[in-house]
TrEMBL record:
Name this protein carries in UniProt: non-specific serine/threonine protein kinase
Residues the entry annotates as binding ATP: 35
Main location: membrane
GO MF annotation list: ATP binding; protein serine/threonine kinase activity
GO cellular component terms, A-Z: plasma membrane
Mode of membrane association: Single-pass membrane protein
Top-level lineage group: Eukaryota
Length: 432
């Protein structure tokens, strides 16, 4: 059939149920990816059947399908430019958006990791390996007979924390894996690196730098190479500044997507919109000061389709009141909406920030307390003569109330009749 098949140097990736190789088909003169199942491994046949079941029901330009030579894969270059990485991230997000929101039956990939993202000749990202994919049941749909509880496979660093406790498959799990991939792509670090352990993972590493306002120091230094060349070129101060602004937004998205709590993660539909916005803003600003700047990019059909869908921001994200997204969702009772809005207002008042960042203020505060309370509190609150220890304790209590009121789950929010006495108690502790 072909040559250069089962050679170690042609191995793309190894999974639980088989391996994927680059194979050159002589007759068609194309390079393709071939998956070889290990049928001696228990569950491999079921994985093969599951993959066939999923692939026959989905069609998307960012998903790798069985081919007879129409889809080519290529070896990834040693270095990808900033825009090329962003394009690939958008490709993967578009594939997940299609699976989660635009299939007849919502589908969860359940095994998103670097070895399952392949590139074609145009460096278009394609999601592959649907051996662990699950169909999500919904009203008026026939549910699949595949088990919905995920058995952990492969590197744990890409697996959503809730799966470790036996939670059922959900779109939240794919979003978590995507968040880790996004952080890897722009830090140049692997979540499996030796520097990461139980106490310090990639998510925490980037989060700490985010709070300190340090982006360029944790970013892959090769991102400052224009055009994806293998050796450094002279980058203007303006170019570095634009990269830094975009990295802030990208790291925010990655941090939120890889939040430990499933409810704290972004919907992949919103991720596609945000990443497209980052890309478009970057190119527009870059071309405004240097129309001939050497940034190579490409336009793919999937991006065009996504942009057509994304002409307006997602419904919950009104740019005039982004942090108050509970309004307009059409869910719950108005008293829960009021408590949510109060919680956001309380967090704003004591951080001095508005809910205008991609990382909403609820997540921003929740990730910082109690250890980093002085870093997120409005600096003007710390300049007066009250006892520092006492003030910090009160700030922590206030932030805890704000977080409890703005919880994503309505049933978990603090009732307003409990909020009032707690705030009175905090005030009394501060007054002489």
């Amino acid at each position: 059939m072909g040559r250069s098949g089962h050679l170690p140097e042609n191995l793309i990736g190894v999974g639980t149920f088989g391996s994927v190789y680059k194979v050159f088909i002589d007759r068609a003169q194309v390079l393709v990816a071939v998956k070889v199942f290990n049928l001696l491994h228990q569950g491999s046949l079921k994985s093969f059947i599951a993959e066939c079941e999923v692939l026959r029901s989905i069609r998307h330009s960012n998903i790798l399908h069985p081919t007879v030579g129409t889809q080519k894969v290529r070896s990834a270059p040693k270095n990808l430019s900033f825009v090329q990485r962003l394009d690939i991230a958008i490709d993967v997000a578009c594939a997940l958006d299609y699976l989660h929101n635009h299939c007849d039956t919502p589908t969860v990939h359940c095994d998103l990791k670097p070895s399952n993202i392949l590139l074609d000749n145009d460096l278009t990202g394609r999601v592959s390996d649907f051996g662990l994919a699950r169909f999500l049941s919904k009203p008026n749909n026939i549910s699949t007979n595949l088990p919905s509880v995920i058995k952990l496979r492969g590197p744990v660093s890409y697996v959503a924390p809730e799966y470790e406790t036996g939670s059922e498959a959900s779109t939240y799990g794919d979003v978590y894996s995507f968040g880790i991939l996004l952080l890897e792509m722009f830090t140049g670090k692997k979540s499996t690196d030796d520097m990461f352990s139980y106490r310090l993972n990639l998510h925490k590493f980037v989060s700490m730098s985010y709070f300190e306002g340090v982006f360029s120091e944790i970013a892959d230094p090769r991102l400052l190479l224009q055009g994806g060349n293998s050796r450094p070129s002279k980058c203007s101060v303006k170019f570095k500044s634009e990269i830094g602004q975009c990295l802030r937004s990208i790291f925010e998205i990655g941090i939120v997507c890889s939040s430990e709590s499933p409810r704290g993660r972004m919907d992949i539909h919103n991720v596609v919109f945000e990443l497209n916005s980052v890309r478009d803003d970057f190119l527009n600003r870059l071309h405004s000061y240097s129309p001939t700047v050497g940034v190579r990019s490409r336009s793919c059909s999937s991006c065009i389709v996504c942009r057509r869908r994304m002409k307006e921001p997602p419904a919950w994200r009104s740019w005039s009141n982004r942090g108050y997204r509970q309004y307009g969702t059409g869910s719950g009772e108005r008293k829960y909406w009021d408590v949510y809005s109060f919680g956001i207002l309380l967090l704003e008042m004591f951080t001095g920030k508005g809910p205008t960042d991609l990382m909403n203020i609820h997540n921003f505060v929740e990730m910082a307390i109690p250890e980093r309370v002085t870093e997120i509190a409005d600096s003007r609150l710390l300049q007066r003569g009250t006892n520092d220890t006492q003030k910090n304790e009160c700030l922590i209590s206030i932030f805890e109330i704000g977080i409890a009121c703005s919880d994503g789950a309505q049933s978990d929010r603090m009732s307003i009749d409990r909020v009032v006495p707690r705030l009175h108690s905090i005030r009394d502790r501060l007054l002489p």
